[in-house]
Design goal:
Layout lengths: L1 H9 L5 H8 L3 H13 L12 H4 L6 E9 L8 H8 L4 E6 L6 E7 L2 H12 L5 E9 L4 E2 L2 E2 L13
Antiparallel strand pairs: 1-3, 1-4, 2-3, 5-6
Helix pairs in contact: 2-3
Length: 160
């Protein structure tokens, strides 16, 4: 099962036939394992990772990281507040953190003003939120193990 997951993590477009050949399992076994992984919620989604700089989409999207300090709810801890936060469509990622703040929230909007308005009128006003600290993401070099920049190699460097 782990071997199949690793292959799908590297390339979700692999066919059942290809995975069967790579794992020395039958196509029926591979298909059954993948279905079980999907049914059990281990595999949540298949998606293409797109470089927004290459499509021009980066000019239309403003991303920010918001650090939230919160007061956990009695009997629910952080989960009830997390549930309210991740339901906003602007919220792309939400993490419970250790250290100086409790939640790291990644949000997207179509302008600096819209992101700032979302933070000030939606996130900061939630019951339990004590403070926010917003940092705008200026450029993505690497995310989720994917390198987004293509370095131009200096032709004067020695060839390996």
């Amino acid at each position: 099962m782990e071997e199949i997951l690793d292959l799908l993590r590297q390339n979700a477009r692999l066919s059942v036939k290809d995975i069967a050949a790579m794992t020395k399992k039958t196509e029926e076994e591979v298909a059954a394992i993948i279905k079980k992984l999907e049914d059990d919620g281990v595999i949540l989604k298949y998606a293409a990772i797109v470089n927004p700089e290459k499509t021009g989409e980066d000019k239309d999207v403003v991303r920010a990281e918001i650090q939230l300090q919160v007061t956990p709810e009695r009997e629910h801890g952080f989960d009830a507040l997390a549930d309210r936060i991740y339901r906003f469509p602007q919220v792309k990622s939400l993490f419970l953190m250790s250290g100086g703040y409790d939640f790291k929230v990644i949000v997207e909007g179509d302008s600096l003003q819209n992101v700032a308005l979302f933070v000030s009128s939606k996130l900061a006003t939630l019951e339990g939120v004590r403070s926010t600290k917003t940092s705008f993401i200026l450029k993505t070099y690497k995310e989720n193990d994917i390198i987004y920049v293509q370095s131009e190699r200096d032709r004067r460097e020695a060839q390996a």
